[in-house]
TrEMBL record:
GN (gene name): pyrH
Protein name, UniProt field: Uridylate kinase
Activity control, per UniProt: Inhibited by UTP.
GO molecular function: ATP binding; UMP kinase activity
Species, as recorded: Marinigracilibium pacificum
Family matches, as Gene3D superfamilies: Acetylglutamate kinase-like
Length: 234
């Protein structure tokens, strides 16, 4: 087992599956099965989930809504996704806790670092909703910050691309994939992995990031079992 404690970042957009908006239940079930497989290996799992399938703060200004208000709407969107994920994980026989970056005490516990670590040690899957709880951040930054706080071994960024490429593989057919790359090289080459805040947090705290395709069945399991899946940045 390559990692003992992981922080899995799932984008909100990934939850749409084939839909244009919202949450695709088949996709959610697929993710729950992938997560259960690694849970059964004894891996401690924390998850940060995005909200881009429902709302992003940057959209707000275009529709005349204040940016900060929009960011809070985005954070609420992540709570909706987190609640859906929590429910499906439990249906798949996992114990879970949902912790929030701001107070929503009817449905989430507040994020308390020591308590989060205790949940992980007890084998609960911990989901972090509502991002960091502050506007002008993203859930990628949340993933980096929470991973450092809970002393995770790695941030696993599950995307729909199977790693970091020399160029955008969806636009440039000659793009080549990196298996390993340093933080420095990513910056020098101007590659797009995460937003700068999220990326720098990992770099400064020596926290490796692995970018991989979460939609390929078995990828999460295989990479934890030691196979070369995705791109490792360290
Ligand atoms: N957001 C925020 N602070 C945070 C995390 C998220 O303001 O700490 C807001 C921000 O508007 C963001 C939205 O919530 O656009 C949804 O998160 P994100 O865009 O990271 O979701 P993803 O792209 O992963 O689906």
């Amino acid at each position: 087992m390559r990692y003992k404690r992981i922080l899995l970042k799932l984008s909100g957009e990934a939850l749409m599956g084939q839909q244009q908006y919202g949450i695709d239940s088949a996709r959610l079930q697929q993710y729950a099965e992938e997560i259960k497989r690694v849970k059964d290996m004894g891996v401690e799992i924390a998850i940060v989930i995005g909200g881009g399938n429902i709302y992003r703060g940057v959209q707000a200004e275009k529709s005349g809504i204040d940016r900060v208000q929009g960011d809070y709407m985005g954070m609420l969107a992540t709570v909706i996704n987190a609640m859906a994920l929590q429910s499906i994980l439990e249906k798949n026989n996992m114990y879970t806790r949902l912790m929030s970056g701001f107070d929503i005490e009817k449905v989430c516990e507040p994020f308390i670092r020591r308590r989060a670590i205790r949940h992980l040690e007890k084998g609960r899957v911990v989901i972090f909703g509502a991002g960091i709880g502050s506007p002008y951040f993203t859930t990628d930054s949340t993933a980096s910050l929470r991973a450092i706080e809970i002393e995770a071994d790695v941030v696993l960024k599950g995307t729909r691309v199977d790693g970091v490429y020399t160029a955008d593989p969806e636009k440039d057919p000659t793009a080549e994939k990196y298996h390993n790359i340093s933080f420095k090289e990513v910056i020098q080459k101007g590659l797009n992995v995460m937003d700068t805040t999220a990326f720098t947090l990992c770099q400064e705290n020596n926290l490796p990031i692995r970018v991989f395709d979460m939609n390929v069945p078995g990828n999460l399991y295989n990479l934890i079992a030691g196979e070369e899946v995705g791109t490792l940045i360290e």
